[in-house]
């Protein structure tokens, strides 16, 4: 039985559905801090759970005979910069606790997302390699880098089968933009569909590694289903989908909405984005467990513009 922690987040809301489709609703328990999320989970069991309430998490794992945990709860990059110590405590304490639970209850597998945020300003920016200098300058990035070290430690020392991906910016239409630096690329579609001008908080030429959510979901399931001997990297795998700038995504939308307008007002998130790579080398994921992205920018934009209105009614 799979426990999803942080199921109502941007990744969680789509990954939980994919896990339910694959394993059946009776094998998935979606949990989140936000009680309002219950209405989103009509396809599997949902219950309120605060990952920092360790006794409740432990008794749920024990009583429900949980065998896998997808730990998706975290404070993202932009929000983390507003509350550094809280972000560090939540991101780190929760991971360490989940790794300890895995060891104590001998859980089958753990999934924990890392991010391109582990890379910093002095990391090579083009085709960033799996192994390179990583001096992240956001609390979120520091917590993801430290988290990767702990994942590898628990695998090597205790045999905990914890697996991880360094996601690029994830773009989906089933959840509103969160506290991410890449979330401009989610919000822009809402503005285009509502006939509003879009003010972008990054410069028009800010190139970032990105990925359409269906690709991220496929990569996660492929990674978790791969035979254990194929998973040779126990920190976190580089993963790439596409790279684009605000100008690129704006132009891909213009083809469908010729009157759509954009202006650029970079804020504190520009400095975060400037510390991240432009593109990622993910050859180890391709070689070790057959990763291959399916979506480019044109296909993503077409798919989102078609489907977003089904999830968020357009203000007429
Ligand atoms: C963020 N969406 O912006 C996340 C992600 C690579 C970006 O980690 O914080």
From TrEMBL:
GO terms for molecular function: L-threonine 3-dehydrogenase activity. Coiled coil: none annotated. Transmembrane segments: none annotated. Residues 2-229 form the NAD-dependent epimerase/dehydratase domain. GO terms for biological process: L-threonine catabolic process. Pfam families: Epimerase. InterPro entries: Epimerase_deHydtase, NAD(P)-bd_dom_sf, NAD(P)_epim/dehydratase. PANTHER family: L-THREONINE 3-DEHYDROGENASE (PTHR42687), L-THREONINE 3-DEHYDROGENASE, MITOCHONDRIAL (PTHR42687:SF1). This is NAD-dependent epimerase/dehydratase family protein.
